[in-house]
Structures are given as C-alpha cells and as structure tokens.
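In this supplementary section we document a worked example of the pipeline. Step one takes a protein sequence of length 225 as its only input; no multiple sequence alignment statistics are reported here. Step two produces a three-dimensional model, which step three serialises into structure tokens for compact storage. The input and output of this example are shown verbatim.
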Amino acid sequence: MRAGLRAVLSSDDTITVVGEAADGHEAVARARELGPDVVLMDVRMPHRDGIAATAELSEAAPATRVLILTTFEDDDYVFGALAAGASGFLLKRTRPERLIEAVHTIAAGDSLLSPSVTRTVIDRMAAAEPPDPAATRRLRTLTARERDVLDLVARGLSNAEIAAALFVEESTVKTHMKRLLGKLGLRDRVQAVIVAYETGLAKPGAARRASSTGPARPSRDTGAA
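The serialised model returned by step three reads:
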C-alpha cells in the first residue's frame, strides 16, 4: 500500500515523499524528524493506531497536517480523526488524481472531508456535547459577516457556494475565513465547523436541511471585517 501511495504521489512533480512509516509509533517519530507539510495516516496500524498517532502528532508538530486514509467509512473513525486534530479524511479507494488533489488541499491550509460524512459526524458531535462557554465568548469577537461565513461553513458549503449565497467574490470568503480562524485561534475549516456546533451557532441537522433546501439568506454586512 505504501509503495502504491509513493508511486502515485511521486507522479506529481510538486510533491516530494520524504519518508514512510510502518506503524503509528514510527509515524510520529519520522514526522518529528522530517517535518513534512502533510502526513498520510492510516487508521489501523500495529503498536499505535492512526487516531492516537494523529493526536500525538497534532501536539508535537502542529505545523504538520494529517490526512487520514482508511478503508472504513465509519462514523467512529471520522469522529476520532476529527477529535484528534486531523485536517482531512479520505477513503483508500479514492482515485489517484483525487488523492493528489487532497494533498495539495491539505498543504494549502484547507480541510478535506466528504460533505455527507462531515454532516453525519458533526451532527453526532454536537448532539453529544453542550455548548462550550469559552468558545461562545470567542465567537463574540466575530463580525456579523464572519458569523455568516462560519454558519455556512458548518452547513457544509464550499467557498464557492458561500460566495454565491452572500453575493460576494470567492476571494472575499477566503479573507473572511482567514480572519475568523485567526480570531478564534483555529487551525483550519474542520475546527471551525466544530466550534460552530459547540457554540450553538449551528444546530444538529442544519447541514442536511441546507443541502436540500439551500442556505438561508444571511444578514448583510454591518461593519468592516
């Protein structure tokens, strides 16, 4: 499997495979040593599974982003990966070109999750946890437009879809995302979605309703973002 991944990734001239690991323990050690931009992490490995390794790596090397690869489309694995700090979740049966695209997406600072998987897992996470008072306080630092963007991100919309819903350019959405992540002290889109549910800004089930009925029309700007 690792040989196949290396061959696929090496076919892209802009990607350099700097190392491999046979298990979760070795993965953390190699990532600390080599400082890669992205780690492709399996879930089921000997000695230390990919979820535990991701959690340790997120603490030890926060600049390294983790893309989980698995054969299991299971809520528990996605839930665990998100909680551990993963920035993406991809099935191993994904086409080679999609895998390459995913690595570039994660390296650029974005997150990568199937919308259907995201909605199911985040709804479950939100239903299990009461609103976080600390996260709610941080939410008050956002402008009205930044809250609109965060709400639509939590509903599973892409930047292009958010831009269409807000009648702005996609570059403007990216600017709002960058600013709200900075204000909330978050690393990426996945963490932003979690905060949206933790604070009650987004409600369980809202993502599925939005996908079938379209996003609610958000408020207009009330100040500079």
